[in-house]
Amino acid sequence: MSRFGVLLLTLLWAVLAQAEPLLQASVDRTRLEAGESLELTLESQDVTQFGKPDLRALEGDFEVRGTRQLNSLHTLDGETRASTRWIITLLPRRSGSLRIPELQLGQSHSQPIELQVLQADASRPDSASQVFIEATLDSTDVYVQAQAMLTLRIYHSVALYDDSSLSPLQLDNAKVEPLGESRTYEKEINGVRHGVIETRYAVYAQQSGTLDIPPLTFTATAAASSDESAQANATARAGHQVQVSSLPLRLTVRPIPAAWPAGVPWLPARSLTLEEHWNPDPGNQQVQIGDSLTRNITLRAEGLSSTQLPPLPATEITGLRRYPDQPLLRNEISDRGMTANREEREALVPTHAGTLALPALEVAWWNTREDHLEHTSLPARTLNVQDNPALGADTPVGDNSSASTLLWPWQLATLVFALTTVLGFALWWRARSQPAVLRAAQNGPSPRTLLDDLKRACQANDPQATRQALDAWARQQPETLAEMAARFVPLSDALDGLNGALYSESGQYWQGEELWRAIGTIPPAEQVLLPAGENGGLPPLYPK
């Protein structure tokens, strides 16, 4: 070969080398179904190039769902070469013949690639029905704030990797509550066994009219078959990404019916029940003044959330003090959706003897099964309260039910004047026959000792010990504890706090300082023994 021929071949090789693209492009497959994704791999061995390929040319026909970059070094024939690969996940926007155009990285360009995107065929279980999604509503016509259950079922006849995801359900003018975790099972369709992923939601429309539920999209990576795995590139992933969407749904929301009573909280439910439990049961046990009765009332409504249940009417009865706890709200999930529970607990303490009538408790609700107004109630109950000798008949003075048993003011004043006159004359007569100083032996605890016990119990913040010491001290006084509390408001408030600590189940921490201060500040005109005089000195020999 002449020198001219050698020179010509050298020039031709150089031209071909310059024309060869330095950016290599490849795909994992050129035929795919609509809704499936593919992976585009771009590889460059030009170490002088920096940055990322320009992917703007893909935006017309494809959705770029992710990009990964891999750098590697390999040795070939004793020569070490560096390469950079970009793996790009693409989702075709339409079916038909598509073209991946030339992509540029610096001065390098990739070659175009032709693709064939097939329309999904429902009659082909081996392709189109490998993964599909179904959305259903248990009812397409509901009342406002009533429950509509949305069920999503994802069917797949091929194995899926654990990178699956479901788009969130977000609705305007509606409250969405997930009904537990997704559950999985299998189902045979047209002789083909499918795995099923089921997800359920409780939808509560907050406005009448129509509520549009948009399509929900499920994305996952389907494992390739054995044939596809054998034909796959060593650099490509054995599997492909699948994306399917549900059909949009429309929900008709009816307003509150005209038959619903005004001013009553709206409660649309499939069923509603009321239950009560007592501890102890007043029907089986005698009730005395000062006893603590715990009443539990549970409101249960199927088809509602616990936050939709209104508070129950309070037990406000004259002669019965009420100490409520915080309501307990919880939801139960079943195959029919959500069931709301509201439990209200209260301690009831009778304050005087007699018959106490508890009124019936009634809740109005709308039956969504039969479409009409209903009322559920608890019957009225009567409590027969007996006197408690240990409390000295703590009957409130201001109670209207006992006003008829009180004496007339002029009768009471005459009786008090006569008794004081007789008592004064008797004391004067006895004093004349006694020495000036008499050392009397005490058969029981003195008022001073009882008062010290009460002080120590209050300072220790012990409600049980304080109540015992208080009852013992009150029995040494000319008045009952109820009479002293009726004429002295600070003492009444302090006793309310003590009873709350004793009978309420909330476990509140009690401070005895307020009660001790109230005992020490009872007006002297009504008090026989003053706690303020703790100097230890004896009373005057001849009191004025």
From TrEMBL:
Domain DUF7939: 448-524
Signal peptide annotation: 1-19
InterPro entries, sorted: BatD, DUF7939
Any matching Pfam family: BatD
Entry's transmembrane regions: 408-429
Domain of life the protein comes from: Bacteria
Keywords: Membrane, Signal, Transmembrane, Transmembrane helix
Protein name stated in the entry: DUF7939 domain-containing protein
